[in-house]
Amino acid sequence: MAQLNVNLIAKSRNHFKKKQGLPEYLRTLTHLHFSSKNIEDIGDISTCRNLTVLYLYDNQITDICNLGFASNLTHLYMQNNSIAHIDNLSNLRMLSKLYLSGNRIAVVEGLERLTELKELHLENQKLAPGEKLLFDPRTLLSLAGSLCVLNINNNKMDDVRDLAVLKKLHSFTAADNKLRNTEELEDVIGVWPQLLQLDLRGNPVCKTPKYRDRLITACTSLEVFDGREIKEMTRQFLVNWKASKDGKKKKNNTHMLAGLSTRATWVCNPRKMQRSLGKQAYLTSSCFTS
Predict the structure, then answer these.
(1) Is 237 contained in some domain?
(2) Quick one: 270 and 227 in the same domain?
(3) Nearest to 46 by CA among 31, 28, 60, 67
(4) Do 221 and 266 lie in a common domain?
């Protein structure tokens, strides 16, 4: 196992070329590539103050630490490690893309100060039996103004209603979870006016009647749904179909309310009911005698 530190960077042929002094090189370094290096710990690399992209995927890292110096970091790749908690990222105010898939995270938290975060990748967490991925409401509220891409594939989730606050989403991927309720999904994506891509493949909800039609009409900005492009002709047909269906439903409800109102009047005013029934009886008898 190894620790990411200045010495390891100096020994790397992919980085330090010895054409310049190590301190100068570390100060000018913007990209650091240390994926698949059996790294289990992040040491002191604070001399890399201009670091903008850090690749640490496919290692054995258990804790996110010693990155408080990296105020210029925009991309952090830490997928396929052994991270259980999202910690120590509050100083990364410029972070735009965060990759944490394939770790051991059960609760998404600690991102309250990442107001520039646009992409969050959390798919395929190694969860314990009975666990499902959860989101801290404070983190969701903090990300509501910036997050555009969210991937939560294969995390045993059965409810995404808390995610409705993420109104800037362009792409939402939640395949291979346990989502079952079409109405709940309609309510959520219906308040995402900028959503362009949606992937729910592998969820039980996909087997419900009119699943695709209902979600397309719930979010008319969608362009790609479950890997298939939505043609404008199809969208317009479904929108018209829903409008017609809603119109008929509204008309039926109006008739039903009118009937209920009449019955209520009769209950409250028996004499009026008697006069009405008497008039109906008179009209009926006239029809038979004429």
Answers:
(1) no
(2) no
(3) 67
(4) no
Listed residue (222, 215, 154) closest to 188, CA to CA: 215
- The domain in which residue 148 lies consists of 2-232
- Same-domain pairing of 148 and 266: no
**CA-based radius of gyration for the chain:** 30
pTM to 2 decimal places: 0.82
Q: pLDDT at position 282, please?
A: 42
Q: Tell me: the pLDDT tens digits for 250-271? A: 666 665 666 666 565 555 565 6
Within a domain: residue 242?
A: no
pLDDT, position 12: 81
Those residues of the chain that have pLDDT short of 70 are: 13-20, 241-290
Residue type, 16: F
pLDDT for the residue 80: 98
Strand order of the sheet with strand 53-55?
31-33, 53-55, 75-77, 97-99, 119-121, 149-151, 171-173, 197-199, 224-225, 228-229
Mark whether 66 and 94 lie in a shared domain: yes
Position 25 scores a pLDDT of: 87
Domain count, the chain: 2
Task: Please work out, in degrees rounded to the nearest 5, the angle formed at the alpha carbon of residue 19 by the alpha carbons of 17 and 25.
Answer: 70
pLDDT at residue number 65: 96
Nearest-angstrom CA–CA distance, 60 and 129: 22
Q: What whole-number distance in Å separates Cα of residue 117 and Cα of residue 142?
A: 10
d(CA 283, CA 261): 23
C-alpha 198: how far from chain center: 9
Same domain, 256 and 223: no
